[in-house]
Design brief:
The protein has twelve helices and eleven strands. It is of the alpha/beta class. The strands form two sheets. Strands 1, 2, 5, 6, 7, 8, 9, 10 and 11 form a nine-stranded mixed sheet that branches. Strands 3-4 form a two-stranded antiparallel sheet.
């Protein structure tokens, strides 16, 4: 894809949680990788943390291959192997296939990822705090991720998790400490399905319980350089008014898990005016005030850099429902992956960031909006 324009800043990949929808993220990365837009930093929550580890923990020439190996492994259940689809069966037939696959995943788990705890009697077995166990995920990540490379700083990685006992949210960052498989698994330990992960005597759950989008972390910690952020959202903020209980469940999940994105981008947009006002005022200050501690503090808060956020939003298929994040069939995974690649191609063709303001601030656009 020669001739593509240079990015308007350091490329950063921001990955939400969303279970099996994470194969769309892998497709987005594949499209960016083929275009030569490889991220220098990745921030992820839940499945986004897993995809992020596979990216940061492999050399450039192996990242797409490792992502595909992971997604083919966890969608390779023999129980689901006969559920082929060419996408031409119609929405009703595809919906039935999708529901059956989600139910089968719930009963049998996903190979290389999670499997039911036996005896499987939710809420009845003494001491049971999760429906599934994730030893297989640990083995998969230890095999597919080079942890020395991940911690080398070649691609910076941050993953979010929440402390089970204190309720405090924390980002584990490869620039601040050495990350290992526990940190990535903790970020994806969504209760009550998956068990908490112990790290140095403390137990951690999925960061999506507090914030499903790590955009705020990126904006708070990359102070100096201009940024070109590719934010991959797995739950659309906009959607049709539901007319059935199943649609209500799906729509409520979309709103809940996409809300942090809107909160962060809206809050940053409201600060763009004050940032510009401070820049104009600072230019008029005499040297003794311009060099004061107060002025330096306002400089830091105003963040004179430019951050452009291209939001790649997964758009639901007509046949999907509330179980879309829990359906691990190969056919659906491949559909998600293809759509991720196609959305990147469409975004690059439009060049949406060219129309954004040239000055400092945080500016965002929906890169997958129709029209």
């Amino acid at each position: 894809m020669a001739g593509l324009p240079a990015l308007p800043g350091q490329p950063v990949l921001v990955l939400q949680g969303g279970g099996s929808l994470g194969s769309y993220q892998a497709g987005v990365f594949s499209g960016l990788d083929q275009a030569g837009y490889c991220p220098q930093a990745v921030a992820g929550i839940s499945i986004g943390a897993i995809n992020g580890a596979l990216i940061a923990g492999n050399p450039p020439e192996r990242r797409r291959e490792r992502l595909m190996t992971f997604w083919e492994r966890i969608t390779g259940s023999p129980t689901l192997s006969w559920l082929h689809s060419d996408g031409k069966a119609g929405d009703v037939a595809e919906g039935l296939r999708h529901q059956w696959a989600a139910a089968a995943t719930a009963m049998m788990g996903a190979p290389g990822f999670f499997r039911p705890r036996w005896p499987w009697m939710p809420g009845w077995w003494p001491g049971q705090i999760a429906l599934y166990e994730t030893d297989a995920l640990k083995d998969t990540l230890l095999e597919l991720v080079d942890w020395d490379l991940l911690n080398s700083g070649t691609v910076r990685l941050a993953v979010g998790a929440v402390n089970v006992e204190t309720g405090n949210f924390k980002y584990f960052c490869s620039t601040q400490q050495r990350l290992d498989v526990r940190h990535v698994m903790a970020s994806g330990a969504l209760p009550p399905g998956l068990p908490p992960v112990e790290i140095d005597g403390q137990y951690w759950w999925d960061g999506g319980l507090v914030s499903n989008t790590p955009l705020d972390h990126v904006l708070d910690h990359d102070d100096d350089e201009d940024l070109a952020i590719f934010q991959v959202d797995l739950f659309p903020a906009r959607g049709a008014r539901p007319t059935t209980l199943a649609e209500v469940e799906e729509r409520a999940a979309d709103i809940r898990f996409s809300s942090r994105t809107r909160f962060t981008t809206d809050a940053q947009a409201r600060l763009n005016g004050p940032r510009e006002a401070w820049a104009r005022l600072a230019a008029k200050l005499p040297p003794e005030l311009r060099d004061s501690a107060e002025a330096r503090l306002l400089d830091r808060l105003a963040r004179g850099r430019r951050a452009l956020v291209a939001q790649l939003v997964y758009r639901d298929q007509p046949w999907q429902g509330a179980a879309k994040g829990r359906e691990f069939s190969r056919a659906t995974m491949q559909t998600h992956w293809r759509h991720g690649e196609a959305d990147v191609a469409a975004m690059l063709a439009r060049g949406g960031w060219a129309a954004l303001p040239a000055g400092p601030g945080v500016w965002s656009f929906d890169a997958t909006a129709q029209g």
